[in-house]
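Revision sheet: structure tokens.
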Amino acid sequence: MTYSIVVVDPPWPFKDKLAGPKRGAAMHYKLMAMQDIYDFPTKREVTFAPDALLFMWRVASMVPEAMATCKAWGFVPKSEIVWVKTSVSKKAESSLAFGMGRYVRNCHEVCIIAARPKAVRLIKKLNVRSVFFAPVGRHSAKPQAFYDLVENLTGEPNPERNIDIFGRKKRSGWTVIGDEVVNEMEMG
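Predicted:
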């Protein structure tokens, strides 16, 4: 199948090891070598339309690798979406989450929007903001608010058009590939 709306949250191979029994991606899921991430679409026989949009989550410590992944997959970075992470507090309705990090405690994540040459035609609304606020869930899980934003921007999802690579759960209107998802395309 050829996809034109692509969401991906790669299992980046972090080089530093954070202390603590629950800190760090490797404690929650299998990481991949960079070359395996670069080669993923080819090895998995996942193809992208000539006018596809890529929504790729990146981590602050691996910006060059994220840009190289966009290029390896045939996309050019165009914009970003920022998720400002919140947590429910007993004292207030919500507050900024207190995330991980060596230099500062991150309370946001960035998703690169990258495109192939004619992808701008896939944008259905021009009033979608680049920042959204949503509570933190389990490690690395992206909130429903993100998928709502993508669908608001690109239109009603269709499993023959929309794919979530390295997804964590089944999603209506999407083909989802991920180790934690048993569906039509298992990671294997």
